[in-house]
Amino acid sequence: MSDDSNLFLTDDMEFDGKAPAVEPTSRMLSWARNSALYRLEQRMMTEKQLRDAIMRKAREKFEDIGAAQIKALGDFAVRFAYEIKALDDTAFAEITVRSGQRSGKSKRGLAQKLQLKGIDRETAAVALQETDDLVAAINFARKRAFGPYRRVELDEKRKAKEFSAFARNGFGFEIGSKVMSMTTEEAEDILSEAPL
């Protein structure tokens, strides 16, 4: 009796056991679409974040999946997200920058964060144009009770601690000095004039 089992191979099975499949199966594509939808419903993502998440989960979910199939699933999820207008790196960058400035992140720190999230330099530069490190530094000082928001007496140890914190968070010495010498009223005036 001859072995006719090769006649019943599905599109996700290898033909000869040696060459990995190149194209993802319809089941894999369906999973990638649903997984992309789920992730984008949870939070806003960049193209890089979505592609990386889909590719990472595909390795875990499907046994014996090939590298070409993994890449194809990542690309498919990104194309699908763009088709349904759920992916927009420009909007992600703008929202991240506005939120970061309100929470006291420096322009340098925000640029680094955008780069890590996979935002290209041109998009990041446009989003960072409207940022003001002075406003961000005042927000940082308010959050940490530094400078005009200080609740304790300033001594040399405290002063060094505050300057170090400003520097670690990407603010230059000039901005740190300016914020530390402000009164609470001056700081609040600058914050009230800052765009939201």
TrEMBL record:
Locations listed in the record: Cytoplasm
Entry function: Modulates RecA activity.
Descriptive protein name: Regulatory protein RecX
Ranges that cross the membrane: none
Keyword field: Cytoplasm
Keyword match Cytoplasm: yes
Domain of life: Bacteria
GO biological process per UniProt: regulation of DNA repair
Domain annotation RecX second three-helical: ranges: 88-128
Pfam families membership: RecX_HTH2
Family the UniProt entry places it in: Belongs to the RecX family.
Gene designation: recX
The keyword Cytoplasm belongs to this UniProt entry's keyword annotation: yes
